[in-house]
Amino acid sequence: MRITTRGQLAVSAMTDLALRQKMRPVPLSTISARQGISLSYLEQLFSALRRAGLVDSTRGPGGGYTLARRSEQVSVAEIILAVENLKNDELQNLGAGQAAQVKSMTGELWTSFNSRVMEYLQSVTLQDLVDQALKQGTVVEEKAPAARTKLPLAPKPRPLMARVNVPNSVFALGSMPILQRR
């Protein structure tokens, strides 16, 4: 079994989602900013997570992602299996003779190792990771961000010096006696 950066980032993003989904769907742009993962890469990950039934998406303003199940019901193994392209036979790149020899010599070792890793990953839930993050001091915003309101524009300050005979448009400039053609 090989767990790549893709699987690690998916687990981090899902933990972030589980921490912050209580009030509303979480936009991927906010996860991207907090986790330092590119938005396009997160879109790929969450597409795979949605196909696996781990997240739900909401479109439109105020949209984003939420967990499809409670965080206690989602294991780390499910997240990794949803985004990784894991193959049962890691020996597929070897020739037929080499693969048979490796399997006969150490096949049981690797099969046992893979099953123990999967057992461990299945025993760790998303809620376990949320609890761990909270113990480590992760701050979760409790309120929705306030909507931006437009402030009235303040009047432009007038210069202290009085302007005398200064045109306020191109047309007024053309009608000034100094610039008229002689």
Defining key terms:
mainly alpha; 182 residues; elongated; single chain; two-stranded antiparallel ribbon
Could you please describe the fold and organization of this structure?
The chain has 182 residues and is mainly α. Helix content is 48%, strand content 4%. It has 7 helices and 2 strands. A hairpin with a 5-residue loop joins strand 1 and strand 2 (64-67). The longest helix is centred in the middle third of the chain and has 28 residues, at 96-123.
Give the helices and strands, then pairings:
Layout: H1 5-20, H2 28-35, H3 39-51, E1 55-58, E2 64-67, H4 76-83, H5 96-123, H6 126-135, H7 170-174
Antiparallel strand pairs: 1-2
Helix pairs in contact: 1-2, 1-4, 1-6
**Main sheet makeup:** 2 strands, antiparallel
Helix content: 40-55%
- Poorly predicted regions are 144-148
Total strands: the figure is: 2
What number is the mean pLDDT? 79
The best one-word shape is elongated
The fraction of residues assigned to DSSP E strands is: under 5%
Main sheet: which strands, in order across?
Answer: 1-2
Structural class: mainly alpha
Helices, by number, come to: 7
Brief synopsis:
With 182 residues, the protein is mainly alpha-helical. 48% of the residues lie in helices and 4% in strands.
